[in-house]
Amino acid sequence: MVSKGAKRRGPLLLLIVVTSLVLAACGGTKVGSSNSAAPTTSTSAKACGTFNLAVNPWVGYEADAAVVAYIAQTKLGCTVVKKNLSEEISWQGFSTGEVDAVLENWGHADLVKKYITDQKVAQDAGPSGNKGVIGWYVPPFLAAAHPDIVDSKNLNKYANLFKTSESGGKGAFLDGDPSYVTNDEALMKNLKLNFKVVYTGSEAALITAFRNGQTQKKPVIGYFYEPQWFLSEVALKHVALPAYTAGCDTDPKKVACDYPPYELNKVVSVKFATSGSPAWNLVKNFSWTNDDQNLVAKYIAQDKMTDDQAAKKWVDANPDKVKAWMAG
Amino acid sequence: MANATLVHEEIIAPRTPKSLLGAKFAVLGVIWLSSALILRGNSTLPLDRSSLTSVHTWLSGLSSAIDRNRNSNPFFVNTIDKIRSSINTFVNLLQDAISQGTATRSVPQIGWLGVVAIIGLVVALWASIRVAILAVAGFITLGLLGLWQESMDTLALTLAAVVLSLLIGIPFGVLAGLFPKFEKLITPVLDFAQVMPTFVYLTPVTLFFLIGPASATIVTLIYSIPPALRITAVAIREVPWSTVEASISMGSTRWQALRKVQLPQAKRTIVVGINQTIMAALSMVTIAALIDAPGLGRVVVQALETLNVGRSFQAGLAIVIMAVVLDRSTTAAAAKVQIATSHKKPVSRRVTRSTKWLGLAITLVAIYLSNVYLWASQFPGAGLLGIKVAAIADSATGWIQLHLVTVTNGLTNIFSYGLINPIQSVLVDAPWYTTAAALVLTGYLLKGTRLAAVVAICIAILLVSGLWSDSMVTLAATLVAALITVVLGIAVGTWVGRSMRVDRILRPILDAGQVMPAFVYLVPFLGLFGATRFTAIMAAVVYASPAAIKLVADGIRSVPESITEAAISAGSNTWQLITKVQLPSARRAIALAINQGLIYVLAMVVVGGLVGAGGLGYLVVAGFAQENLKGKGLAAGVAIVMLGIMIDRITQAVADRRDVHAKTIR
Amino acid sequence: MNSEIDPTISVHGLWKVYGPNPEKIVGSADAFLPRAELREKTGCTVAVRDVSFDVSDGEVFVVMGLSGSGKSTLVRCLTRLVEPTAGEVWLEGEDIRAASTQRLRELRRSRFSMVFQHFGLLPHRRVTDNVAYGLEINGMSKSARYERAMEVISLVGLEGNENNYPSELSGGMQQRVGLARALASDPDVMFFDEPFSALDPLIRRDMQQEVIRLHHEVKKTMVFITHDLAEALKLGDRIAIMRDGALVQVGTPEELVATPADDYVANFVRDFPKSHILTLRWIARDPTSGEDLGGPILAPTVIVRDAARQILEAGRPVRVMDGERLLGVVTADEILSVIAGPHHG
């Protein structure tokens, strides 16, 4: 049983504890008294405000986003909100104001039509400097063992090598992340290749397959692309398809040629482009090479750096490029 | 007095005896199999990966139309957007409090010290001091793992979803408990929400509520309201009618009886419901990372992109810790509610009033400090524990991949060639009408025309979706995964059910298996089994078998001691005891385990699509990612739901039959 | 009818039918089919079949029957805990079936109360709060209802247990709480639905004594449901035997024992020691001519068992006199035939 005294002692006890603990704790750094994550200059913070940056699910993009976000945050005083979204959802974000910028766009004619042409909520912000290559790849050990395998004409000869439990007697050809539009099924048919397209379902699955293929010397062939950090770990060999000519892929059922080279570009919301935010200026000027991106991507993916660490390392090593991006 | 008949005596409707039914199914199976083999390749309704049917185009058009009009349509502007913005406000409020800084403040209002103190106080007051210590230790571990802010984001989202779930679930649950008609009305809706794999409704929800906290909360609600509602209804219904009747006989109004008699007695079970709701919400909040929900789930999803096993394991561990803390706290709170019907002291020492004041004082000081001082606001240290955990996980998976790969490759091949390929080829190559007829007949044999009609409707919708062939691929993988799950469930479940010691050791592992997001173990599994259907099946087995094991174990344990005693005294050996007494007596639990196993496995179908299982899961993921496949993805989602309803209804019917059978022989 | 004034409870042609379209059964030819046949034919079950009886003020009226005979449904129909299908129920001159929900609630709060087989105590409330429940929902202030609760708690002998939770009490004690709760609102009529059948035999006997004592002290009209003949005979001023939903016989204990209406009732009372129930009125015979009419005098209300020794020792016929009137004589023969059974022949 609790005595009445205890009841009355309660508040007193509380008061004593509060004062003593507060007194004891004095002397620590106060929130807001020094810079923690807040911007250094308050004037530019006002000018920039919140910058909503979409981050699409591949590491190359993450590298772009890491560097742009790092600069926007530390040099421009923006509050950067990174949003991890698939491409389609990112574009959807332009119309709702959830997303200000996409830094690496791979074509997407359908989305361009929907959001730039029809809804007029997004606009092109110029090339990112990266050149996209999509195509068929094999691990380097295989290309070394069978030099002629890097031409699609010779693939049927090796189809048996690629047989797996998933490929129903044919050679297995691995397709990756479902976000990418591929012509592979049509290509198999039209090039009369004895391969079955097997959908691995994610980039992670695809990379694991290539990585295990190389380390265990297990033949693998599949769809891949650059720029991509994994290529700096395992230098996959590109398999040549009949050369791409303009319009050879218009009818997806009859396509029998390689994928087109991509000029990767940036897309922003119209609202962002007209906001006068210094972040818009940065995004507009941002442009770098495949090697730049692969390097930062490697920092993140292989060296396990955080985005900010990776970005800082690259930014510190490349002051000229950064300066150019921030100019007028 | 021989003719003093009982009013309550039920006449059990005559049913087909079990052996006869078994024979009928055997005949049905043989006919289906032989016709499938004879007619193989005919009317298999295949559809190319990139081909679309008019239904798919129509669905795409529909979703585009919603997207186009959502800024002008009054329904969206007035209703959907209002809901969206109020949920957003609510979630942001919680995030500002514990996880995120605002425009004017770089850190949340309450820092780690304050949160830890609040958790400790709340758990100590409502549960027990012992669990409070566990909770505080658990939360500090979250900080040590270097995932404090992510954990708080997850906690904020979970709290928001739980509060809303309870606000909706408990009142409706009370209504369902009071009015059987209302319950009948909403049961199919709840079934649907629980059978529908969570990934399936991610896309449709974002269509209406866009990406962000509101969508994340709503997808979570879809998953977490049903347990809250169902358990509340059970809680109200299991209040002894004698007490309600006594209360009415004394002139209580309905409201008085509810408030003074039913709700107080239902409290304990409702707290159990809160526990289930929290666990459901937590598991869904991590999946909602796919639609930009912040928190631990996002860490896992990001780690998947760079195949960062260590990082994803870190986050997975944090999720498990949070789940254990929330589970044990609410379980202990539920136990304490029960104690209030007698003077018996709770197991742990009662908290005296002065201790309560002291706790309150410390908590207030901690909140103040964490609001004002940086050291109490941001968790100190660089998450060294997290780095260590990640390193261990990395090297462990590295070692396993290196040394076990021949074994796992062999296993993959044995299962693929021996089990998956044959089943899949029969299902995929069989003409659709033979399989459809076999399924409808199965329904008819089990429960008559009503179940047959349900199955027929599901099949019709599958056909309309244009994805029959993909559905059969998914069905084949689901059946194999379910088979493994059930075998594991019965074997391990029997083991666990017979020994409390094994139970104590295995239960935390089972709990972890249930709450650990599948993404965490996808990468190691990919390394071990490659991008194959078997990887997907293994992921599903990991996810589904804990539930199956627990159900079987509980079933074994609930076999009355008198029965086992009688069997032992009759000279049964252990094997005979298990096979002839315990398993048959637990057949209802086993049937339920099969049902739950299948539903859980099906819930993982979409994840399977990410690791090479193809089928409907892949199409859902593709529809989520590609504009022109959107309609096809939605159709695939619907097809998964139809498979789920069919599997659920048929296995439920089997479970019910077993129940009736057990009753009649008793 | 036992008294000249209006009966406290009056039931006429009461029916309760479960199943689809229950009204159609009432009064139809089907209503009197055996239960299994009726259910086969219509899907309905008749729980209470055309029951009529009166209970006068202060009387203890026992309804006795086997499980499934409809007696629990009957008592619930009287207070409309179960809605009757047809018939009339009058309580203190008020038509219960016509009462509005509001009025019915008022009646339940003030005029009648019920004691249940499974007690129906609220596990989350202490004894006091269980007893005071009815007063609480009627809006009585806390101090007033606690005061009243303590009165009835001491009336049923529960002093010292008022702060216990029900689960901390034995079954018998729990039912005392049930009794106290029913008494708390000082009702005119108390209904008992097999209140002691869940108790041990010894405790049951104590509780029966308790009810008899309470009846003497508070003089309530009581309707008591039981399946135990001994209990019925012990408590009841009058007993109604129920079978398959209908009343087979209504009468005083002596009437049932002495003149069972049919084999069913006879079967019931056969094994019961008649000498414990029957009074001399029932065994007195007309004196034969030349019989000695100078023996001792006993009143006709004396129970056989109590008179047995005196009559057996009298050595000559004992006269049974109602005042100045000679009702008959009783000899050892009559006593023996009651105790040892009649001569067969």
Short description:
The complex is a heterotrimer of chains A (328), B (666) and C (345). With 328 residues, chain A is of the alpha/beta class.
Distance, first to last CA of chain A = 75 Å
Oligomer: heterotrimer
User: Radius of gyration of chain A from the CA trace?
Assistant: 26 Å
Indicate the CATH architecture of the largest domain in chain A. Answer: 3-Layer(aba) Sandwich
Order of helices and strands of chain C: EHHEEHEEHEHHHHEHEHEEHHHEHEEH
Give the domain tally of chain A. Answer: 2
Separation of termini of chain C? 37 Å
The count of DSSP E runs of length 2 or more, i.e. the number of strands of chain C, is 13
| CATH fold group of the largest domain in chain A | D-Maltodextrin-Binding Protein, domain 2
Number of helices of chain A: 14
Given the C-alpha coordinates, what overall shape of chain A results?
Answer: globular
Number of strands of chain A: 9
- Structural class call of chain C reads alpha/beta
- H/I helix tally of chain C: 15
Strand order of the largest sheet of chain C: 6-7-8-3-9-10
Folded structure, characterized:
- The complex is a heterotrimer of chains A (328), B (666) and C (345).
- Chain A is built from 14 helices and 9 strands.
- Chain A has 328 residues and is α/β, with parallel strands linked by helices.
- In chain A, strands 3, 4, 7, 8 and 9 form a 5-stranded antiparallel β-sheet that branches. A two-stranded parallel sheet of chain A has the order 1-2. Chain A has a two-stranded parallel ribbon with strand order 5-6.
- In chain A, strand 5, helix 8 and strand 6 form a beta-alpha-beta unit.
- The radius of gyration of chain A is 26 Å and the shape is globular.
- Chain B is mainly alpha-helical and 666 residues long.
- Chain B has 28 helices and no strands.
- Helix content of chain C is 38%, strand content 22%.
- The radius of gyration of chain C is 23 Å and the shape is globular.
- The mean pLDDT of chain C is 86.
- The chains are: A alpha/beta (328), B mainly alpha (666), C alpha/beta (345).
- The interface between A and B is large, with 76 and 86 residues.
